Amino acid sequence: MTLKLSQCLLKSFSAQRTRRSWHNQVLFCSLAMLLLSLLSGCDNAPNDSKDMGQIMGNSAQGYAKVVPNKPITFPQDHLAHNDFKQEWWYLTANLTTASGEAVGIQWTQFRIALSPPDSEPTMLIEQSQSSPASSKNKFPALHSQWQTRQVYMAHAALTSKTQHFNAEKWSRGNKHLAAVSSNPFTIFTQNWRWQSDNNDMFPAQLRVEQPEFGFQLQLDSQQPFQRQGDNGYSIKSADSAVASYYYSQPYINVSGTINRHGKSEIVTGKAWLDREWSSQFLTKAQQGWDWFSLRLNAQQTLMIFRLRGNNDAGHFYSARLMNADGHGSNINSKDQPNDIRMTPTQWQQTQTGRHPIAWHIQVTSANIDITTSALNSNSDMPLSVSYWEGPIQFSGSHQGEGYMELTGYQ
Amino acid sequence: MTWQHTYLTAKVFLRHYRHSPVQASAILVGIALAVTLLIGVKATNENAINSYSQATELLSQRASAHVSSNQSDTINQQVYFALSQAGIPSLGVLEGVAEGPSGHSIAISGNDLFAAMSLALTHSPPPDKKNPQSKLMPFSSDIPLQKLINGYPAILMSRSLADKLSPSGKVQLNGYQLEVIRVDDSAGLGNDIVADLSLLQPLLKQQGQLSYVALFPQYADQTKSQLIKAAKHALTAAGIAVSTLNFEADDNGASLGALTDSFHLNLKAMGMLAFLVGLFIAYNGVRYSLMKRHSLCIQLMQQGVGANHLMAALLLELIVLVIIGTIIGFIVGLQLSQWLQPMVSMTLEQLYGARLIPGNWQWQWFMQALALTLGAALFACLPMLLGLKRTPLAQGAYQRPRTQYYRKLHAKMLLTGFITLVISCTLMQFTEQYQYSLLLLGAVTIAIPLMLPQLLTWLIQLIEQSNPQGLLQYALAETRQIIAPLSLAMMAMLLAICANVSMNTLVGSFEITLKQWLESRLHAELYIKPSPQQIPQVQAYLQQDKNVTALYKQWRSDAVLTQRLVANTSINSDNSAHPQATFNQTQLHVPIALVSRDASSIEQTSSLKVHSIDFWQGFSQGSQVMISEPLAIKQQLNIGDKISVDRLNKPLTIGAVYYDYGNPTGEVLIGQRLWQASTLPATPISFAVNYQGELSQLQLQLKQHAGLNSSTMYSQKRIKQEAITIFTRTFSITLVLNSLTLIVAAIGLFSASTMLTQSRLAPFARLFAMGVSRGQLQFMALGQMLIMVLLTCLVAMPMGALLGYLVISKVTLQAFGWSIAMVWDWYSYAQVVLTAVLSCMLAVILPLYWQTRKPLISSLQQESQ
């Protein structure tokens, strides 16, 4: 579907397309692109068609910028940052059923701003020319609670060794249809809902219901949140050209039930939450990313990712080793070149592309040297935006479970 | 070896046509015209019918069910929110009317555009969809969603509608200047105007309100009733009273199909009529070309070509001509339907609220047209070919005079036609279903032209009785002779004129009936239909305004007719309330409207067709009700019968039937007392007032005090105007098809007279040689044709009137349920006759001009051919 869609888009923009292929878009970049072209493609009048690259370049324009040294505070920053172009609430979990079966769960709610906050006031209602200028009171500006600049997209997946369910929901921002709100803290798109007991994120209930699958999980965490990068300011390229605000909660206890084809099972395990918002996520040269969340042991977790440039030298690596007490240490290829090494060891052609499903990961300074393997090689998310996301196991210097996300492969 | 003969003969025929292309083109034109109209109408019809079953929510998918209110026109948007929060894929839709720049009403629809489009994207039906493009279409770059969901003052229209309505790219609705965004026609918006709820709710002053919520299946094989059950469950859980809501499963367009059935059948009948006229022309062409080749064929046989091979060659020729003609006709016909469709879609939208989506032509149509044409051509031409085969060789190339043969044939045709006519008209008195009436009408249509040649002969003989002298006598005698070769073209002409006369009678009569009915139906000066929330304010205002001299109210609710109890004995109206009467029960499911008005409105405005003796008394007591004429006719209900309606708990006795024109939904009108005793909504839906003073003053007051916009207020004059416009549109397509048929007939006459003048070159040359001047000759030929056409028109008038009578008192009455008093429309008849005469003149002058310019000797040589 996405392919067809992008082909359709390609057609509509073929005249203006420059520089690089659409197919090499990365997840969030392509998400923004997709929406930009789908939803704001006609921002410009028909005879004022902008160059595609221009739209790309200007995509962050008008939105708030990610700057260093801006403190992340809770619980305010759990809520939506509507001035930024994109944002997500991202939960992955490695669970075990009562019968001992390993399963993985993903739930994500994305927020995308379709137009920047300082764009022209849209409630520009021109009065009819025939009516006198004094008739302003007669024709008040039209206001509606339906007005919004935000749309939400939610993804959910349930993965076992042999099965991989996934689903998607879309909605415009509206406090009754899809929103993130406080008192108590809630994230929802239609019937998928994260419902906290208070204004903090935890404890909370996460409920996803689909005809073929669903889950209802109790989420709890006592540990402090981990601010990624420089106190939450996470750079995405060696020249710091792009960055995001990013924090995580790698220590979440999970209990609840999962549902597959109407069959319920009790599950327990560990979950991991990522919160991230920005207005531009990738540089133009970046092709995609490989992201891992790894539970090294009861006291330590590792977030590690690689943003792929045009060639091996253009890759950007970043990681954070996080302790349960809230402390942690950052490693990245800008400050410590060659400290992180990530090498695909096995490739598999899946539904949406050829993906590296097994890896050799080394972080020399932290004495980490592990190899990973996927629980289910076919954990594609063939949705409006397609990517690979699924549970993994690893062994070597450390042993354990985690999650892997691969974007920008085809 | 033997096929070589066939091949050779075919080659000879090909040469023949190369020599006289007029003959081949006459046949081709006939076939092409027939197929053009057949396909034009078929494509138009099929596309419309397909639209009913494929129509999606605007810019989205087809819904499986709809939730609306059974109390008022709108529902609270909480219903949409509750369904959405329960994970039921749904879409909130608001429909309304806005006031256009010149004060006229413009219908406008809106929905949660983002949900509509994402449903189309993520909720597409199974992959075997015929047209994968339609799935991708919604997120087209034409639509700036990011602006629209933020209340940007813009509306969406299909390109073709925008070109018509707003070439400037702006439109003013309810006083607000809105930008028009053009969407490709393939998006299927038809004539709808679409906006996002963020704009439409405030624009229509319907904050928080929706017209309905469309439901989509949660999973692939969920049935509609399962979906509705899930929706009811979700709403109940959200604390919304399900009893105030209507849950309707999508019927794949069945009810719309049933509603528009008669309309499409009428169109189809018109198409078949045009097809018939075209075939007449083609048949005439085939016959003429065979006649011209008669001696050639005999010669071929004399030289050893077997009769069977000759036949095979002739058949081959016919088949090739039919195929070529069908291809041409098919292509032109599709083009024609492109032109007809906007007209049809306008009618269907206005009358039935159906939205047409662009369709694709299908190969099957071509095959059907080809099979039909080939079948008809073979059926018509085989006797002729066999006749040729039986011709004794010894007869030689000499063409025997066929006067005798034609005399017998015409007499036989008259007899057949007359018997068919009498039988059909007799049977017509007993039909109750319009399908059968239409079938009998078809028989009448065929019977009429059959009688024409003999009638023409008689009429000319009648003129000859006046003993004209000299050239005039010759001219008349010769006219009688050319009846036979021209008869087919004249029959086609007759059919076209008859159809025109009958349709003009229908339309004229309908307009007069409608005007009279509106006159009696509309008794107030101003009619007001506010949105449900505005009702109390409007009512309060009207009650306190001292200048309002009369205030009338109307209540209305959708309902379903569930049972019909037809009185068993043929009872008179006076014992209708007789308790002993026994009834035949039939279970039904017919959507209707339950209506009530205040007592004085009902008495003043109901024009009754029939009623029981004690009707008014029974009506005010609530023991009897009125039903609309279309409902009475379609359900075959009479006074004295009983009906059950889902919203009322006891059966209702029908006491009267009232005229109700242009309303496709059946109505049951009940007294105020009965209405108030039921659980039906207590608030009226519309008001009508009489006002002392300037009406515009009242309208201004209502705008200021109750927040109404002009599109919710109609003066009596405006209603009449709009009603007439809309209703005449119902027939616009029929009139267009009629004119096309007349054009086809004129073209047929043209080709026939071209061929005829060619064959008359020799007699003309002889007359010329005898001293008759060119001018006299031209005048004579023209005069002869004029006599033929005028006499045909003379025959056509009573026949057309007969057809008109049958169409009005049988087909229209049964199909639409509208009684129409027949009125003669002399002006339009004169127009038709004039058109016929003019086209005939043109058809004669041109060939005549060609012919008289030829050298005398070559014309004289024609004799020897």
UniProtKB/TrEMBL annotation, chain B:
Signal is among the record's keywords: no
Chain ranges of the ABC3 transporter permease C-terminal domain: 271-391, 738-853
First-listed, main subcellular location of the protein, grouped into a coarse class: membrane
InterPro entries: ABC3_permease_C (IPR003838), Membrane_comp_ABC_pdt (IPR038766)
Name assigned to this protein: FtsX-like permease family protein
A Pfam family this chain is assigned to: FtsX
Highest classification ranks of the organism: Bacteria, Pseudomonadati, Pseudomonadota, Gammaproteobacteria, Alteromonadales
Keyword list, A-Z: Cell membrane, Membrane, Transmembrane, Transmembrane helix
Membrane topology: Multi-pass membrane protein
Keyword Heme: no
Compartments, record wording: Cell membrane
Chain ranges passing through the membrane: 21-41, 269-290, 310-336, 365-388, 409-430, 436-461, 482-503, 735-756, 777-808, 828-850
PANTHER family in the cross-refs: BLL1001 PROTEIN, MEMBRANE COMPONENT OF PREDICTED ABC SUPERFAMILY METABOLITE UPTAKE TRANSPORTER
